[in-house]
Amino acid sequence: MHNPRVAEILSVIADGRGGQVALPARLCAECLSVLPVSGAGVALMTAEGPSGVVLAATDQRARQLEELQFTLGEGPCVEASGSGRPVLQPDLVAAGPARWPGFGAAVLEAGVHAIFAFPLRVGAIRVGVLDLYRDTPGHLTTHELAEAVAFAEAATVVVLHLQDHDRRDGSHAALAGPIDGRAEVHQATGMITIQLGISLAEALLRLRAHAYASGRTVSAIAAEVVNRRMRFDDSESGTATERERP
Amino acid sequence: MTSREQLLASTFVDLADTLVADFDVIDFLHTLAARSVQLLDADAAGIMLADQHGGLHVMASSAEEARLLELYELQNNEGPCLDCFRSGRPVARDDLPAMRASWPAFTQRLQQLGYHSAQALPMRLRNETIGALNLFRTEPGPLSEADRGIGQAMADVATVGLIQERAIATRELLATQLQTALNSRIQLEQAKGMLAQRTGLQMNQVFELMRDYARGRNRRLSDVVAQIIDGSFDGELLEKGPRTRPRTSPQP
């Protein structure tokens, strides 16, 4: 059920120096080399909406466009993060100013003609947006769209794990692979959220980190949690798990 | 009209009614699964949809067994639904020996779960196959021709609804709709986990609890999911859970 392309992207961007902090920038650069776009940026989101924090951008213009959307409170990134849906605008001139009165004029002036924004989310967990810009109008082809979605999935993993401040093995777990799509993984995430009184994002991080640390798959740990053979418990040594009594 | 005809008519209206502002894709697919069982001579139904990479995902089912069978198909890469999705054509066999010849492992699992027939109808618009509707029967043998026709018509109407005919099924829209549907499904699973932990219920019981709660209050399933996730749900939702610690027996 995995998209193998996501794992491939994660392994390509991991192959370099600069640690975890450099991953968003490398991901944007890889986007640019694979997709027919002029610029790419990753913006961070909080529960309230766009945070104004641009994690990475391929150039100054891409960075400014991200920041402008935050200032104006409108634009594809704002819309994608609000609705949770990808926003694809292949021709800003033809679309006219109605959709984004302020932002639309500013991007055209900056020479941008097409813009594609992909929310970075795992169900209710919303961590950011991947924005792609192009100097020429035109749709993404089916293949390009699938590539962009794979990049967004990879970016979701990277941004999610960047928020994992407490754990040293977080960066390794980030590179361990895409988020497992099995229902049990998301059910276990929900259960751990209540067990530890933490957010869904933190619960997913704990689940992945525990799988990484114990050398088992995320879905194997998730199945134990769902079957109530294992529960997460906070202790001084970090996250411990205990076997439930039969 | 007979009551079946009335239900059939209202089902087509419901399945076509996707252009509303509060359209809820998971609710919609569950409606398709539930109505398939009510209207056709089938005992369980499940729906799989494909993502942009052609990867199939179990999106909705009328019963836990149907979900498990579909997952089994995906894991073992064998079964009528996969054949149906790949060919874009209806897939059925006349009897159990024929099913065993085509899908030995799947047929064995099917019988273990108490079913003796499985067939799949494509969810297809023009050249695009977006998924399949799977129908399971406890009696051997496929659906009658008449039932198969009705089932295919329901799948067709649902497909048109999902792709939203009004936008002429652009690939972009299809991609964003499916992406959104997949994420809604993840959100549903996260909420199920939260509620299972709070109530001590099993996952399939939790889902029924959520659905009944949504119906009883005339709310959309996705609204209830959002309430569970942000903690703003009504305390009554928790009252149905067992007071004591539940059995810890693993689910199959």
Question: Number of helical runs of chain B?
Answer: 11
Question: How many separate helices of chain A?
Answer: 11
Helix percentage of chain A:
40-55%
Instruction: Report strand % of chain A.
Output: 15-25%
Radius of gyration of chain B: 18 Å
CATH architecture of the largest domain in chain A: 2-Layer Sandwich
**CATH level 4 superfamily of the largest domain in chain A:** GAF domain
CATH top level label of the domain at 3-167 in chain B = Alpha Beta
Largest interface: A-B, 39 and 36 residues
Q: What is the topology, as strand order, of the major beta sheet of chain A? A: 2-1-5-4-3
What is the overall shape of chain B? globular
Main beta sheet of chain B, described?
Answer: 4 strands, antiparallel
Query: Runs of chain B with pLDDT <50, length 5+?
Result: 165-169, 243-252
Question: Which structural class fits the helix and strand makeup of chain A?
Answer: alpha+beta
What proportion strand of chain B? 5-15%
Q: Give the total of domains of chain A.
A: 2
User: What's the number of extended β-strand segments of chain A?
Assistant: 7
The profile of the biggest β sheet of chain A is:
5 strands, antiparallel
Let me know the CATH homologous superfamily of the domain at 3-167 in chain B: GAF domain
Straight-line N-to-C gap of chain A: 32 Å
Q: How far is the N terminus from the C terminus of chain B?
A: 43 Å
Describe the overall structure.
The complex is a heterodimer of chains A (246) and B (252). Chain A has 246 residues and is of the alpha+beta class. Chain A folds into two domains: 4-164, GAF domain (Beta-Lactamase); 180-242, Arc Repressor Mutant, subunit A. Chain A is 50% helix and 21% strand. The longest helix of chain A is centred in the middle third of the chain and has 21 residues, at 142-162. Chain A is elongated and about 60 Å long. The relative contact order of chain A is 0.13. By secondary structure, chain B is α+β, with helices and mostly antiparallel strands. Chain B has a domain at 3-167: Beta-Lactamase (2-Layer Sandwich), CATH 3.30.450.40. Helix content of chain B is 56%, strand content 13%. In chain B, helix 1 runs antiparallel to helix 2 (25-39). The longest helix of chain B has 29 residues, at 171-199. Chain B is globular, with a radius of gyration of 18 Å. Chain B starts with a helix and ends in a 13-residue tail after the last helix.
